[in-house]
Amino acid sequence: MSKPTENDVMQALLQVMRRLRDPQNGCPWDKEQDFASIAPYTVEEAYEVEDAIQRQDMNGLQEELGDLLFQVVFHARMAEEAGHFDFEQVAQALVDKMVRRHPHVFGDADIDSSDAQTASWEAMKAEEKAARGQRGVLDDVPLNLPALVRAEKLSRRAGRVGFEWPDLEGVFDKIEEETAELKEAVAKGLDRDAAEDELGDMLFAMANLARYLKVDPEAALRRTNAKFERRFRAVEAELEARGKSPSESTLEEMDAIWNDIRAVDRRQHKSQETD
Q: Of 48, 114, 194, 214, which residue is 20 to 30 A from 27 by alpha carbon distance?
C-alpha cells in the first residue's frame, strides 16, 4: 500500500471537520461552536505547543501541533459555512505572503543578514497596513495578547518611529523612577486603582527592559515561575522529611531551606558553565 500524499492527508482532515460540523449527522458539540467559542481553545493549543517545546517533548509536540492545526481547520470550516473563505484560500494567502515577504529567496533581492530581513519584513508589513487603511503605528497590535507580550510589542512599535530611550541606562532610570513613584504612592495609602496604575507603569517599564535585552518577557516570567515552583516544592519536601508542613513552620525555617536550595542551584549553574 502506497504512503498517502500530503494532499491526501490534508483532504482527510478537512473531511473529518466537515463531518463533525454536518448539520444532520455531525457532533452536537462541534455544531454548536462559533468563532468566539473556539478562540480560547486556539490560544490554549498555541500555549501547549510552546510547553512541549520547552519540555523538549517531541512526541508531545507532534500531538500539540496537530491540535493547533485542527484549530485552523475548525475556523476555516466555520468561515466557509458562512461564505467568507475556505481553508484553501487561507493556505494560498499564506503562500502568497511568504513568497512576497522573502524576495531574497523567491526573487532576486539581496538580503544577506537576519537583521536586514527583519527590516525588510517590517517595511513590507507597514506597506500592507497602509493598504488596509491602518495608518497608526500601533493599529494592528492585537488587544488579546498576554499583557507583558503586548507591552513589549507596543513599545517596540513606538521605538521604530523614534519614541525610544537612547540607551539601556535610560530604561533602568525609568524603572527606578516608576519604583520610586510606586513606593511613594504606597506610603500615602494608595487605593486599588492607584496601585494598579502605578504597578502597571512599573511592569511596562520592565517589558521595555526585556525588549532592550532581547528577552521574551513572558518566557522569562514562565521560567521564573517554574523555578519558584520547583524550589518551593523542594522546601515542602524537606519540611515533610522533618515531619512538618509549611503552615506548621516559621518563615525563618522556610527561608533557610530556600536559601540552601538556591545555593545548590547556583553551584550547579557554575559547574555547567565550566563544563
A: 48
